[in-house]
Design brief:
Two copies of one chain form a homodimer. By secondary structure, chain A is of the alpha+beta class. Chain A is built from nine helices and 14 strands. In chain A, the strands form four sheets. A six-stranded antiparallel beta sheet of chain A has the order 8-9-10-12-11-13. A four-stranded antiparallel beta sheet of chain A has the order 1-2-3-6, with helices on one face. In chain A, strands 4-5 form a two-stranded antiparallel sheet. In chain A, helix 6 runs antiparallel to helix 7. The first copy, chain A, starts with 5 loop residues before the first helix and ends with a helix. Strand 6 of chain A pairs antiparallel with strand 5 of chain B. Chains A, B: It holds the Pfam family DcpS_C. Chains A, B: InterPro entries: DcpS/DCS2 (IPR008594), Histidine_triad_CS (IPR019808), HIT-like_sf (IPR036265), Scavenger_mRNA_decap_enz_N (IPR011145). Chains A, B: It is an enzyme of class 3 (hydrolase). Chains A, B: It catalyses: a 5'-end (N(7)-methyl 5'-triphosphoguanosine)-ribonucleoside in mRNA + H2O = N(7)-methyl-GMP + a 5'-end diphospho-ribonucleoside in mRNA + 2 H(+).
């Protein structure tokens, strides 16, 4: 989603890579000169990434290494001309080998943050998670006061709703102030392919902070978002509603009601059962019990260093 | 979970790799001799894997390539001695480079299945998914008759419950025939570290096929599984209940009620919102409405080639 702040935007640009490429100039200091590893902050065997804290010329640095995805148009060259294979296992029709491709077909992307502050290092440090079971009373006595004390700015959301920003990105709008919403692409999606299609519907009415504020009165709004959002995505992108995972987050990342529309095959962050709530389930639950989300115990994960978790612990509930 | 059949076991062995390693013998035919790429069956940019269908000496072959995870103990060597970096982007403290590591630190795992049958090729072909919205009536008129027509064998489940198999693997049992269950490690978990802890609770009562069969009478059983399962895992593995994602699948992979206990930080397959149902939510829903899962529209994804989806289409519901 649209996010305020320069920091986030700069990181997005880094993530997406620049337009041109050049070679490190010979005269400059090597960006990893004398690199000393201090610690492994995090690693993912699945993603083939590793996050390192190290020192370069007495400066702290964070180095993120990620192996390259395979490319359909160059993969044949990996297997051509009888490449050297080291056998690991052979069993009937199955064989497992180790292959050492030529370096140009086997690059590693290295992101270097230098000098890195304590905050950078902490950001990439693997954080333990803990589940919270938030009762309706917990919400009112712990979570709501916490949200109010943080005074998170959502001016950027109001800018979108008032067409002061991102007006050219709007895919669909229902302008009704009580039952309407704006649908636009999430910033995580580059809009180049529908495999990872990701849009956000932001509701026009203000003051609905999250799932917790929903009641039976909001059913027409939610049904508009579901039906019109699906129709607009079918018309614009040719993707059917049954190919979309449509859900809310609890906790959300900002406290103005919004709904995620994501390609079913795309493993976006935050689609796990303890964070995502299918909009179709939310509608059914409110039809069953208009107060469902006011009384319900909601389970979600917090990082152990998040201030909200400390509030729960202070209250003897974490 | 324990799975019947030799095929699965053989594949597990291949996945986990063999104990020893050797080098391809010089005299034998090269396993990729004259490899011709026919098609890319599937690829994952996130996992750095690609699944290929090709031909080797007129035989069909499936080749699965996967880049190696980074290893904490060798990663320093990648960054030592001022390796050649190709600059992609530099912005303030952020730099993105391409690094070409020496081949021995940058292997690719190649799994070769040869000769591959049509079935192998289809197995690895990327399958489109489609969401189904299954009403209670759909369940009774489409899904239940389909399940009954398949006569899936769950003898292996009964073998566990009767201690005819895997008795030495049991972590906890409540032997009550109506309110009891057996907890044991899932086969996906090698039990060497708790990061990816994965256990399954299999209920003693028979005939509860899935979530759909649950009603208010099952609350004591479900609460036993939740409470005793958490306590047993804390005692045996030192992992607290608030560090466990505890859920059921719908559709499940076999039709005898079972509950997954998985480390919260482990991104196991099937933890997404359209497949997993938190046990704590299931309990609350049944307390709210004893018939919740008989009447509820449940949303889940099917591969477009699954026979159940065809049943829905035949009924005009897919």
């Amino acid at each position: 989603m649209a996010q305020p702040g320069d920091k986030r935007k700069r990181e997005d640009e880094v993530e997406n890579g620049g337009a041109g490429e050049s070679v490190t100039s010979a005269g400059a200091e090597h960006p990893l000169s004398g690199f000393k590893l201090r610690s492994v902050l995090r690693e993912s065997a699945r993603d083939k990434t590793i996050f390192l804290h190290g020192q370069v010329s007495d400066e702290d640095a964070v180095v993120i290494l990620e192996r390259a995805p395979f490319q359909a148009d160059t993969v044949s060259r990996l297997l051509a001309d009888d490449p050297t294979l080291r056998l690991q296992l052979k069993n009937d029709i199955y064989g497992v080998y180790h292959l050492s491709p030529p370096p140009q077909l086997n690059e590693v992307k290295a992101t270097i943050i230098r000098p890195a502050t304590e905050k950078h290092i902490k950001k990439y440090l693997r954080q333990e998670l803990q589940l919270i079971s938030e009762t309706g009373d917990d919400y009112r006595s712990i979570t709501l006061p916490f949200i109010q004390s943080q005074s998170f700015s959502i001016q950027w959301v109001y800018n979108i709703l008032e067409k002061k920003a991102e007006a050219d990105r709007i895919v669909h709008e229902n302008p009704d102030p009580a039952l309407g919403f704006i649908l636009l692409p999430d910033f995580k999606w580059n809009q180049k392919q529908v495999d990872d299609l990701y849009l956000i519907a932001i509701c026009h009415p203000r003051g609905i902070k999250s799932l917790r504020d929903l009641n039976g009165d909001h059913l027409p709004l939610l049904k508009n978002i579901l039906q019109e959002g699906q129709a607009a995505i079918l018309e614009r992108y040719g993707v059917h509603g049954h190919q979309l995972r449509i859900y809310l987050h609890y906790q959300p990342s900002y406290y103005h009601l919004h709904v995620h529309f994501v390609a079913l095959g795309h493993e976006a962050p935050g689609i796990t059962v303890e964070r995502a709530h299918l909009l179709s389930d939310v509608i059914q639950n409110l039809e069953l019990d208009a107060q469902y989300y006011r009384t319900r115990t909601l389970t979600y994960a917090l990082r152990v260093d998040e201030p909200l978790l400390q509030r729960f612990r202070d209250a003897g509930r974490g």
